[in-house]
Write a structure and sequence with these properties.
Elements lengths: L8 E2 L2 E2 H13 L4 E2 L3 H4 L5 E2 L7 H12 L4 E5 L8 H12 L5 E6 L2 E2 L3 E5 L3 H9 L5 H5 L4 E4 L1 H4 L15 H11 L7
Parallel strand pairs: 3-4, 6-9
Antiparallel strand pairs: 1-2, 5-8, 6-7, 6-8
Length: about 190
Amino acid sequence: MGREKALLEIGGETLIERMAQLVESVAGGARVVGASAKIRALGLQSIADDWPGAGPLGAIATALRVSSAPWSLVVACDLPYLTKAWLEHLADRALGSDADAVCAMNTRGAEPLAAMYHQRAEAAIRSSLTQGTRKVTDALEKLRIEVIEPAEWKAFDSDGYLFKNMNSPEDYEEARARLGRGADTR
């Protein structure tokens, strides 16, 4: 992208602010792991990453370490099409689950950056990190996962955008066009 994705704006607010508000509306609070000085300046609650440079897996381990709740909602800030309805459904599924994590399965595989993680998953995730694992889906192999199949989650995503992330300037322009016109997904 050439700049910090979290600070890109859609509809007058940054991606990180949009995501924090969305998570807060579902989970009652939101924390940003490994926030830069610019993100901290936005006033969002943030915590230092225990595993800087380890990517999202390190952030998940950090989030689980600081959480006092049995379940934690983990989302990446570059998923602008996530909706409150989907995240509420995901959280409800987790609260009734005995799995270590609950996540949607897509044609490309699991969606671990819009998922619920139980506190008991922390030890396995930290073990994976210690062993050099950095890919979240590789660490998921050591957890008991409850999968939400496409037939279920597509009820929340008739346009096929729910898990579409922003990895390029073109993705960003598309999200701005779709969401910046007042078509707020939250």
